[in-house]
Amino acid sequence: MAWIYLALAGFLEIVWAFFMKKSDGFTLLVPSAITIITMIASFALLSISMKSLPLGTAYTIWTGIGAVGAFAVGIVVLGEAATLMRLAAGALIVSGIVLMKLSSTGT
Questions:
Q1: Coiled-coil ranges per the record (predicted)?
Q2: Exposed, middle or buried: residue 17 (CB in 10 Å: 0-12, 13-18, 19+)?
């Protein structure tokens, strides 16, 4: 169950990052509220997953999901550049997430 909580926490990190961008520096009410609510939920789920997962594993995977997800949303939704170097960097992050999961001794 900890892995499910961690995956949901990572997904919510993508959501709050997107809405933080859309909040225009926290000047728009609805995107700002969504940012704050999903941040709290993401942190709460991360905290629950850390009850049984190692700190380094949980935090690395959480930030990795958020980083790669926000990167993908930036390209697909916001039209940000998809250069070869950026794509390679994303691939390296994904490989790090996979290695961290494979090396985990947590449940």
A1: none
A2: buried
Distance CA 38, CA 93 (A): 23
Of 62, 68, 59, the C-alpha closest to 92 is 68
Look up residue 73 and give its two tokens.
């949303």
pLDDT in tens, the chain (107 residues): 999 999 999 999 999 999 999 999 999 999 999 999 999 999 999 999 999 999 988 999 999 999 999 999 999 999 999 999 999 999 999 998 888 888 876 55
DSSP single-letter state for residue 53: S
Residue 103, number of CB atoms within 10 A of its CB: 10
pTM of the model: 0.86
Domain that holds residue 92: 2-103
Rounded (5°) CA angle 19-92-9: 35
CB 41 within 8 A of CB 29: no
